User: Fold this.
Amino acid sequence: METRPLAREFTRYAALSVLGMVAVSCYILADTFFVARGLGSAGLAALNLAIPVYNVIHGTGLLLGMGGATRFAILRSQGAARRACAVYTHTLALGAAAAAAFAALGALGAPALAALLGAEGQILAMTATYLRVLLLFSPAFLLNDILVCFVRNDGAPQLAMAATVSGSLANVVMDYIFIFPCGLGIFGAVLATGFSPVIGICVQAPHWLGRGCGFKPVRVRWHARTAGQLLALGVPSFLDQLSGAVVMITFNTLILGLCGNTGVAAYGVVANLSLVVLSVYTGLAQGAQPLVSRAWGRRQRPALRVLLRYALGAALVFSALLYAVFYAGAGGIAAVFNSENDPALQAIAVQGLRLYFLGAPFAGANILLAVYFASIEQAVPAQAISLLRGLVVIVPLAVGLAAAFGMAGVWLAFPVCEALVAAVALLLLRRMRKVLQ
Assistant:
């Protein structure tokens, strides 16, 4: 097997996907920076309480987009174009149903949802505003996620990247305009975020409306098995985002009890930087996915092993560089978001940056292996990894470590959880050797 062309192809897909995913995560990071500057710690706390809902919306988009696009890529590599388009049609139908549910929740239940997430007092109104607008824009978020995944698997990773980057850059510009010159506060921040996927959809329009597009809606009867197959393959991507929401809700609750709103604001700094860091691993995984699914469909087993080595190696190098930067520059990084120069917020955030991101290399391995298993239609191990890191291990671990070590225990819950799950993931990979040979 010639590895040089494969290495070039992996580098192209992975680099474009990472850039696109980092751009997506900058939706919220830009909000964090401008909200911290414009609205102080109260706005930062409100934003942090609302972010888990963004995780759920984006996770649903990846559930449908990654699941549908993975199945689409496998079928198309086998010459089944009609069945591949049927998968796309089912994906759109499921996306429409999910969008309607999210929009209804935004219109009718935003204040109750904000209170459920722990908001109270002046923070309750700000959180409810953010949630209402975010949920009403959910149709755009979901459609953009679906299109990005299908466009990437249709041989146009540059366009998928351009769509996410242009949307993110527009979000940054609109954040500044809406919050400062227009004085729209938290509403301006979420309005800028909501417009970003609309721009992404428009950028991709020449592809999905063009004659050369490999995926088109087709007349097809609803088939529960087709829907089930694409959902099963997309579950790991959804659970990765859901795990972020679960971790944030758990940590917010624990930190409120330990340090109050100041602690939640400090966690907002760490959590939003974590979105960017994890987006790099997600980008690596999503960049490798079309190549892995194609190799699986064509029964090219050596290529599967090579692609996995490339992805894990890139994640390890990034993790080492990342931790060096966060450890040495924790004070300066925290100060960027500490507009009120609160010494308590500064101290909590610095400790968090140095402890929390010890888990980065393990989280990267877990994300990559979960998507890798899904890309070769091994849904059970993929879902097991995602469930363990997102729901089963992290919550009791965080509660126990917080009770034993206070804030240090909260920060250490993430790296300990990811390390334990990474050990399980490697065992699952060893058990899959026969499939990969």
Notes: The longest helix spans residues 3-77.
